[in-house]
Amino acid sequence: MRRAVRYTAIWCGATVVAVSVSWFGVRGVLRNEFVDDVNVEPFLARTIPARAESSATPRRTTKKPVASPKPAKPLKVVTVKGGEVVFTLGAEGCRLVSASPVSGYTAKVARAEGWIRVDLAKGEHGTGVFCISHERRTDTWEY
Q1: Integer Cα distance of 29 and 47 in angstroms
Q2: Do 73 and 86 meet the contact criterion of CB atoms below 8 Å apart?
Q3: How many CB atoms lie within 10 A of CB 28?
């Protein structure tokens, strides 16, 4: 009986190690694959006041037609050594969604007509992430 329990414990431990190694090997690939395809839809949060129940009869409500949502703009997630920058690329050009530096790095944003630049820097070294509107693309420069 002890031998069977020991073999079962060893098998469970090896399975946990194998699954963990596999997960850490593919999580970056899966994250990059699925994050690039995420369509973020804005939503409107409303507070609905509580009403006192004066009677037990149900009330009839009429539903208003829901307007079709605007097509979502594609998100472009750029991950570099100093952090992560997210842009939307649309017909009107680029828009910065977020710039998230990792610990020890700083984010600095510069904008001009036709492009946005985000620098994720630590001391003298860093990465410049560019979004070029008329080309609808991103680019990175190490310095």
Answers
A1: 39
A2: no
A3: 10
**pLDDT digit string, tens, across residues 26-75:** 776 666 655 555 555 554 545 455 555 555 655 665 666 666 566 666 88
Which two structure tokens, joined as six digits, stand for 48?
A: 């609905």
Separation CA 98–CA 110 (nearest Å): 13
β-bridge pairing 93-101 and 106-112: unpaired
Category of 25 on φ-ψ map: left (φ > 0), alpha (ψ -120 to 50) or beta: alpha
Burial class (CB in 10 A: 0-12, 13-18, 19+), 140: middle
Lowest mean pLDDT across 75-79, 89-93, 102-106: 89-93
Q: Which of 79, 80, 78, 82 is nearest to 123 (CA)?
A: 82
Q: Measured between alpha carbons, how far is 116 from 87 in angstroms, rounded to an integer?
A: 9
Residue 80 identity: V
Predicted TM-score (pTM) of this structure? 0.50
Strand 115-122 relative to strand 125-132: parallel, antiparallel, unpaired? Answer: antiparallel
Helix (H, G, I), strand (E, B), or coil: what is residue 44? coil
